[in-house]
Amino acid sequence: MAHAAPMFSMFLKASLAALALASWAQAEGSGEADLLRSPIRKVLIIGIDGLRADAFRLADTPNLDSLKRDGALAAHAVTDVLARSGPGWTSVLTGVWSWKHGARDNAFTGYRAELYPNFMDRLADARPGTVAGAVVNWKPIGSNLFGRRGFWVAPGDDKAVTEEAERLIGKGIPDVLFVHFDGVDHAGHTFGFSPDDPFYMWAVEKIDGWVGRLTQAVRGRTGEEWLIIVTSDHGGNYRHHGENVPSDRIVFVLANGPGCRPERSEGFRGVVDVAPTVFAYLGIPVRPEWKWDGRPLGYDPAPPAMSLTDRQQP
Asked: Which CATH superfamily is domain 39-308 in?
């Protein structure tokens, strides 16, 4: 019995060591499982054609207001100096202004796609296998900006656009999806681009219902974390747009997603901030040779990728 105490002590130490090892292994396994279950980050960009910043602020839009409250907002962002849909949406989707990308009208005349492609092409290069595309009311966006690598569909009016976007999101198809609504622009050209016009404001409020459906669609996806960005291509005055004046150029950029700082950006902001915001959210560095003109909204830019020389430094 004289050796019982030492033997029990050794047994106790061995048991505790085994328990610690088992606990460590379980923790490691749990961490690995958690890693495997990490949500997939995805992006929804909602483009509302022809929505002035003041109308965006004043309309009765509970769904957009909810995104504003929890997100980052540039309430007086500028669109391209040409203030038309072709140059405006090209700036949104390439991250550069028209003096670089070249698109100068609604026929996208002069667009230098080989130098300034849709940012989704850059994304596909950075992350092969990424599925990106668009559901649009206005077909030229698809045929001119998504015709090379990303998919695009133009199913009809804004209701049809919403239903098709819901279908794609519900099937888990896109990693990045651009959705374009045209009803506000149509109302502006018909009745006038003004927050004082009831028909124009009704069109804004109608779009808010479609936005609510898309928000619900992405928020209901299990295992996915969605960044939602909302912006416009131009404003307007009377029944037209295309001038370098505040009513035509002052729009907005709104970002709402996991980790987004709920900031109110009062400095110079533009629709070219959309592409850098997407890349910052996805943790992908922006390469200087792309010559993008914007900066992220609500997120810090991803650190630049290390070169081979950097990796070899002690």
From this structure: Alkaline Phosphatase, subunit A (3.40.720.10)
